[in-house]
Amino acid sequence: MAGDDQEKTEEPTAKKLADAKNKGQMAQSQELSSFIMLISAASLLYVTTPTMGSQIAEMMTRHLTITREQIFDTAFMLEMVTDLLWEIFRVAGTLYAVMFVAAFISPLYMSGLNFTMYPMKPKFSKLNPIKGIKKIFGVQGLVNLLKALLKVFLVGFFLIVTLQGWIPKLLNLAQEPMRQAFETIGDFIFSFFFILAASMFIVVLIDVPYQKWNTKKQLKMSKQEIKDESKSSEGNPEIKGRQRQAQMAAAQRRMMNDVPEADVVITNPTHYAVALKYDEEGIGAPIVIAKGADLIAAQIRSRALGAGVLLVQAPPLTRAVYYHTEVGQQIPGGLYLAVAKVLAYVFQLRQAGTYGPRPTVPTDLPIPDELKS
User: Fold this and answer.
1) Contacts by 192-195, CB closer than 8 A, 24 or more apart
2) Is residue 290 classed as helix, strand or coil in its secondary structure?
3) Three-class SS of residue 92?
4) pLDDT tens profile 228-240
5) Rounded to an integer, what distance in angstroms lies between the CA atom of residue 116 and that of residue 24?
6) What pLDDT is attached to residue 275?
7) Tens digits of per-residue pLDDT, 201-235?
8) If 0-12 CB within 10 Å is exposed, 13-18 middle and 19+ buried, where does residue 32 land?
9) 263 and 343 in contact (C-beta within 8 Å)?
């Protein structure tokens, strides 16, 4: 749709470029390939023309100078024809090999080395005649038509100018020695390829920038496409939000299940609650096994009361532990003395039992200034 095309103003992302490369959707110029093939052939002919004429003349002299007896000798004629075909293949095969290599490496300039089988996959959409007609009469079809007209004009113009200088030489070929005649023909073929390459070079200077610009334009993305790609690569934010909520809920359930194992729950008394556990046989400091504020704090207090865990009101200490210690971590060193007094109170209360003297609830709990909240 035209509206969608106008919205595609954003540069393609790295993923978009990688997908396009895997699909073979990269800038390609047939004109560049043709030019490299022609200039390669012209260069080869320029190097080999001085000796090619002599080789062809020698080959024809050797294979056309035969006696009457040799003509009727089947084995000799078979050997001569085989040798002649090999000589022709050797002379022409080099030219074909150079052009084949040039055709193979020419796309590297535009898009680098890339091998993919994706374009070979059958697509029924390619058989749609409506799309084919749109390509013919669309912008790309108009560009191809203009390139074809430009090539016809340039090639025709340069060939006419070149032939005007070659016609006298070509007409005098019959009067030249065979070796020299073949050298003249080689020079003419070299001039022919060179003129074709020169005319194609002008087209290449126009086509290569256009193909790069057109491919880049086709790969541009709309803002919505970038958002959709981000969602697909990084995950839908809504789904990730639900996953985080599920993880938090699971972590909270595990935390609540650990509350009955606590030695004491210190409170604010209503806004915060922290469950502490101390391993008397261990060498570590007390560990926070649960903490929460407001509703979660109320749930911790309720779970602790149901499990018979003692609740101790220590607002400054509770806030300090809450803000400076995560669940599963040991309390900071600056709170060792304050927590030790609370735990000592808890252990004394346990030893006193139901009828023993009850210890005094500690109130002078030292909290360092850097840990106060």
Assistant:
1) 192/159, 192/162, 193/38, 193/41, 193/42, 193/45, 194/39, 194/42, 194/46, 195/155, 195/158, 195/159, 195/162
2) strand
3) helix
4) 777 666 555 666 7
5) 6
6) 92
7) 888 888 888 888 888 887 888 777 777 777 666 55
8) buried
9) yes
Amino acid (one-letter) located at 95:
L
Contacts of 328-333 with C-beta under 8 Å, sequence gap 24+, read: 328/287, 328/288, 328/289, 329/287, 329/288, 330/284, 330/285, 330/286, 330/287, 330/288, 331/276, 331/285, 331/286, 331/287, 331/288, 332/371, 333/285
Burial zone of 150 (CB within 10 Å; 0-12 exposed, 13-18 middle, 19+ buried)? middle
Q: Report the alpha-carbon distance of residue 339 to residue 336 in Å, rounded.
A: 5
> What distance in Å separates the CA atoms of residue 9 and residue 106, rounded to the nearest whole number?
31
| pLDDT tens, residue by residue, 152-208 | 888 788 778 877 778 777 777 777 776 677 777 777 877 887 888 888 888 888 888
Query: What's the alpha-carbon Rg for the chain, to the nearest Å?
Result: 45
Phi and psi at 140, nearest 5°, equal: -65, -40
CA–CA dist 210, 139 (Å, integer)? 12
Residue with tokens 């101390």: 278
The full DSSP string for 173-191 is GGGS-HHHHHHHHHHHHHH
| SS3 category, 287 | strand
Distance (Å, whole) CA 196 – CA 208: 18
**Beta-strand relationship, 272-277 and 311-313:** unpaired
Enter the DSSP assignment of 330.
Answer: B
Q: pLDDT band at 273, cuts 50/70/90?
A: very high
* 178's tokens: 């065979």
This prediction's pTM: 0.43
Contact indicator for 291, 274 with CB cutoff of 8 Å: yes
**CB-based contact 41:198 (threshold 8 Å):** no
